[in-house]
């Protein structure tokens, strides 16, 4: 919170490497930063200089909602960042501030409302049932990521976006390249440009469309002159990547359930608590590596008695906010009865992820299908032998070997 008593004493700069962590281990560097204070200073593996890091829940809410902290201003600055391909791309939707950001979000809002998602619920359930049918038919052992947890979210987000089934594999390949930090900038940029060109063509074909999928909504908005073709393609890329990330989140979620059979059994015996339990798992899982996109202070701002000067870069950590003991008592405990549970796994403020209801829908369908239809589901290897992704910005298992 902003305070009247301001100190200009700067905390030391802490180097924060992009650690490859296994399981659902919480980042030990972030743990130390949380202990050191509500605001610390960090240096990430790429870029230049240092940035502030905000870790407390209320401060994260304040910074993400305060127009004095700008995403758009990052495009004029060289800041410390997690990966080489996090170089700001002028006009990228994720870096726009209101009112432009609000204008673009408005063009696709209808697809992400409860009514919009109801349109794809039964189709999603049917696609998932087909995947589980194949899983049971082929028999154990199998890789749950390859057979269900990866193809299902890809199919759902492509359905919502209006991407033909034949193009789903290519979308997933592009997303993997964009979200990996294990190769140079050119590879990620090439994948992002190719995905952008694909969506530009698809949206152009749907100009003036009355369809309810995202590319049709964007085509209609372009036709009305509300967004430019470039803005529409950039937004489509952002949504497609975000939708595919459910693969990793659900992978971590099932890793927890398969290594904590007591939790899985409770969800089997008490299906009515599943939506609330999924929210708690979303709070608990460390869904990303380090931090995402920074903001720039547009004027001097006091946060927790610390002076953030105009021009300073600042990051917020949703992971640490989700472990703030002032908001979440016993934050290291998975508590399916936790209420209220105002977790920020989907972000806060104008840049809050529009796909939060979609992610919940997918995870609820996955939990229902796998726990009910495969009651003996268990890991086929010891927990420490489950391989987790290396060099990934979004954390999750590379494979989840299971049997039943």
Question: Which labels suit this protein?
Answer:
six-stranded mixed beta sheet; 8% strand; globular; 404 residues; alpha+beta; Uridine Diphospho-n-acetylenolpyruvylglucosamine Reductase, domain 2
Descriptive notes:
The protein has a domain at 1-82 and 289-342: 2-Layer Sandwich (Uridine Diphospho-n-acetylenolpyruvylglucosamine Reductase, domain 2), CATH 3.30.43.20. Helices cover 46% and strands 8% of the residues. It contains 15 helices and 11 strands. A 6-stranded mixed β-sheet has the order 1-2-3-9-6-4, with helices on both faces. It has a 3-stranded antiparallel β-sheet with strand order 5-11-10.
Could you write a compact summary of the structure shown?
The chain is of the alpha+beta class.
Q: Cα-atom Rg, whole angstroms? A: 21 Å
Runs with pLDDT <50, length 5+?
none
Overall average residue pLDDT = 93
Q: Tell the overall outline.
A: globular
Count the E strands. Answer: 11
Strand content: 5-15%
Major sheet description: 6 strands, mixed
Total count of helical runs of at least 4 residues = 15
Which class do the helix and strand fractions yield?
Answer: alpha+beta
The N- and C-terminal alpha carbons lie at a distance of: 50 Å
- What is the second-level CATH architecture of the domain at 1-82 and 289-342? 2-Layer Sandwich
Which sequence of strands runs across the widest sheet? 1-2-3-9-6-4
Oligomer: single chain
């Amino acid at each position: 919170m902003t305070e009247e008593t301001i100190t200009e004493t700067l905390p030391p700069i802490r180097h924060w490497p992009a650690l490859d962590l296994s399981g659902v281990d919480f980042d030990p560097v972030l743990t130390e930063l949380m202990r050191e204070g509500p605001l610390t200073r960090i240096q990430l593996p790429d870029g230049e200089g240092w940035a502030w890091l905000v870790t407390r829940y209320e401060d994260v809410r304040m910074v993400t909602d305060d127009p004095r902290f700008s995403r758009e201003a990052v495009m004029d600055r060289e800041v410390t960042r997690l990966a080489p391909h996090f170089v700001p791309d002028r006009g990228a939707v994720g870096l726009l501030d209101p009112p432009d950001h609000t204008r673009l979000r408005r063009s696709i809002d209808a697809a992400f409302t409860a009514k919009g998602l109801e349109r794809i619920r039964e189709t999603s359930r049917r696609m998932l049932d087909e995947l589980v049918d194949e899983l049971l038919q082929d028999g154990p052992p199998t890789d749950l990521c390859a057979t269900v947890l990866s193809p299902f979210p890809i199919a759902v987000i492509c359905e919502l976006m209006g991407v033909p089934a034949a193009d789903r594999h290519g979308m997933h390949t592009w997303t993997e390249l964009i979200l990996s930090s294990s190769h140079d900038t050119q590879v990620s940029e090439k994948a992002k440009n190719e995905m952008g060109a694909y969506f530009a063509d698809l949206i152009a074909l749907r100009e003036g469309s009355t369809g309810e999928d995202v590319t049709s909504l964007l085509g209609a908005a372009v036709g009305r002159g509300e967004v430019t073709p470039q803005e529409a393609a950039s937004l489509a890329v952002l949504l497609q990547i975000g939708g595919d990330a459910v693969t990793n989140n659900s992978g971590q979620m099932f890793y927890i359930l398969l290594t904590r059979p007591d939790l899985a059994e409770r969800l089997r015996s008490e299906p009515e608590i599943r939506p609330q339990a999924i929210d708690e798992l979303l709070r608990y899982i460390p869904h990303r590596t380090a931090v995402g996109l920074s903001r720039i202070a547009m004027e001097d701002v006091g946060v927790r008695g610390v002076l953030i000067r105009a021009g300073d870069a600042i990051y917020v950590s949703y992971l640490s906010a989700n472990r703030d003991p002032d908001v979440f008592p016993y934050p290291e405990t998975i508590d399916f009865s936790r209420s209220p549970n105002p977790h920020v796994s989907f972000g806060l403020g104008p840049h809050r992820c529009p796909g939060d209801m979609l992610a919940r829908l997918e995870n609820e369908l996955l939990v229902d299908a796998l726990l009910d239809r495969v009651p003996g589901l268990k890991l086929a290897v010891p927990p420490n032998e489950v391989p987790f992704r290396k060099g990934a910005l979004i954390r999750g298992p590379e494979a989840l070997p299971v049997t039943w």
